[in-house]
Fold this protein.
Amino acid sequence: MKKILDGMKKTMVDVNPPRYTALEGLHKVQTARPFRILIATILSARTKDENTTKAADKLFKLYGTPQKLAKAKVRDVEKVIKSVGFYHVKSKRIIEVANLLLSKYNGKVPADIDKLVDMPGVGRKTANCVLVYAFEKPAIPVDTHVHRISNRLGLVDTKMPEETEMALREKIPKKYWLDINNTFVMYGQNICKPISPMCDVCKIRKTCNYFQTKSVS
């Protein structure tokens, strides 16, 4: 796994991609807290990273704590996060999450996947993102990029993201889990794209099932 991650990083150093992941950016900000990571991850579903960052920045300037967000009106939050997909639904959900945190967890985000997935709008991918980016706990968040690249490389042979997560958990040593999501997502956004992947610059193409199959055909 180390060779794959290192190869991806070396490729991106050479290509110098302009894009980055919203959650990694938030993780690096000193003011970022588990609450903000949780809310930003909910906002990020089916949304480009730049739009997630834009909405999260605006939201946290007004509602940076569970207490403030819990008291917010849905229509006001909708105006703030309008740049993300499904903002009507997400506005309601993040307010519900803020209220749940206050009523059940004393305003603290639990570092437990079972408790996280019980929250409105939080699936395994979101919960795993919170564990990785908020608490630096080993987990494997699987989004469309992680799912696609894992299958292209031949690390897994799966149809659904949850299947990919479970297969990767069995196959990859835990010491690499924290690095998988950010590296694979960056690679999927910039190099191993859904359409027309940049195989010519990829430093791990020789061990990639997708490239080998494409080369033969």
Observations:
- The chain has two domains: 2-17+140-216, 22-133.
